[in-house]
Amino acid sequence: MNSRLFARFALTMAVAGSAVPADAALKVVATTSEYGALATAVGGDRVSVTTIAKPTEDPHFVDARPSQIVAMSRADVLIEGGAELEVGWLPPLLEGARNGKILVGAPGHVVASEGIQLVDIPAAADRSQGDTHLAGNPHFMLDPENAKVVAAHLARVFSALDAGGAAAYAANLATLSSTIDAKMLEWTAALAPYKGREIVTYHPTWRYFSRRFNLVAETFLEPKPGIPPSPPHLAEVIAKMQSDDIKVLLVEPYQPRKTAESVAAHNGAQVVDVCQFPGALPGTATYVDLIDVNVKRIAQALAAGTH
Amino acid sequence: MDLLTLWLWPLVALVVLPAMLVYFGLHVVGRGIIFVDLALAQIAALGIATAILLGADPEHGSLPWVLAIAFTLAGAALFSLTRFRHERVPQEAIIGIIYIVSAAAATLVLSRTAAGDEEIKNLLVGNILLVSRTEVLRTIALFAGVGIFHYALRRRFHLVSFDAEAAEKMGMSVRLWDFLFYATFGLVVTSFVRIAGVYLVFSYLIVPAVCGALLSAKTTRRLAIGWAVALTAGVSGLLLSTQWESMDLPTGPTIVCVFGLLLAVSGAIAFGRHRREGRPARG
Prior knowledge:
The complex is a heterodimer of chains A (307) and B (283).
Chain A: H1 3-17, E1 26-30, H2 33-43, E2 47-51, H3 66-74, E3 77-80, H4 90-97, E4 109-111, H5 144-161, H6 166-191, E5 198-201, H7 207-212, E6 216-220, H8 231-243, E7 248-251, H9 257-264, E8 270-273, H10 287-304
Parallel strand pairs in A: 1-2, 1-3, 3-4, 5-6, 5-7, 7-8
Helix pairs in contact in A: 2-5, 3-4, 5-6, 6-10
Chain B: H1 8-16, H2 18-31, H3 36-53, H4 63-81, H5 91-111, H6 117-124, H7 133-152, H8 154-162, H9 164-169, H10 174-196, H11 198-215, H12 219-243, H13 251-277
């Protein structure tokens, strides 16, 4: 076998083709792409960002590839959502990467949910409620106000680890926050006509989003979080959609669209493709674009469902 | 480069553990029960699902593993009882049925609990890149124990797998020895699936044994060829996937594809010999 020679050749190719700026002060690894997008916005060209889960991949389940462990072994900062979203796969990756800088408790380990008020915290910690996250619902990044909190958290951590960039991080953070504030007015206005309207979603992903924009997203195709829909539960959802005249059903890229379509067909509701991770749908490269696309699609569907 | 730091334990696992699988693979291919490994792994999954139904926490606690082993042993008993002397029903059919019924039963059991299918899958199906030192060392100890047991009784295990009639004439209880075979095999398969996943366990069992059978008729030589094939596939697959960074290939599937290549090479060699000698390759 010539695998050593081959490996060396491949390695040379990889280094030559690498797009990471050599002068990045911080190497950042984000578990999912919304944290990657925020890290890029706050860090600018002082950071190089790698995202572990693909935006179209279910963040509850991620299969490890070699590059992910290598990236984590070289990282200065790791950003995880926390709230147990990545609990199934991040601990073994962390163990495999053997990098003291990003271990739990190290300054380079960012838990984004710290400082966020979570909803859906179960009163009793037991498994009868499905794949419930005991820490609370982890999909808080779909509320732009929470994204601002996380961005500020990132700016603090980046500045502590790279003091020379503190001014740049502060300036980037200010730009991002004011962009979000400006867009917030637009988004709120776009959804204001539908105040109090109900939508159905596959998984409780849209709880924070709906609270922020005065919608109601409390009916789910999953009978319990993480449990695939059972026929009796779907029958209940169909009945509710008919009696309450719910015309919008949200699905994300890794959720079964067929199930959603067959439910929606009963009362002529619209299945709307939305996503919680930048890059999963066209035109959602940055965090602001992500919220923009989601708001537009949901507003459009709600408008179509209005009699 | 990172080979001895980041990938040390996957490498150790891929060098040491396949020895036992290649040995069992010769038996499994000899008996013509190719899919028994998948069936046993599925029975173990049913055990874990049952433990969850009884209220055990699948990630901690010992009940899931106690039940996984108990179910595996029950499966071993079932397989040893369903080997008919005069084959009216091929055993592969029984194995298929046991596989599909335990898979469906696990789904039914889980629908009564709050845990998702994926949760069981995560527990049962590992990723070779993420093995920990403890896992590798524990599995090596288990495999060594099973290996010593089989080495000490190798003549009997060989006889019962390859010539059950002669074994019976010698007064051996074929059912008992079949049970011992399936029970030890089940332990090995279930723990390897937990480390490396279903694709790899199947490849490690079947491909080296088939390469050995293509290239030699002698058991010891088949074993040696099988070990060489397994070692080459595992180590070069790991190297390809970890060192060829621009491609970022997932490790398990890379190893399986290298296995496919090695089988093709073995087939070509056997075919060449057959042409040269004007008769089937028989040794």
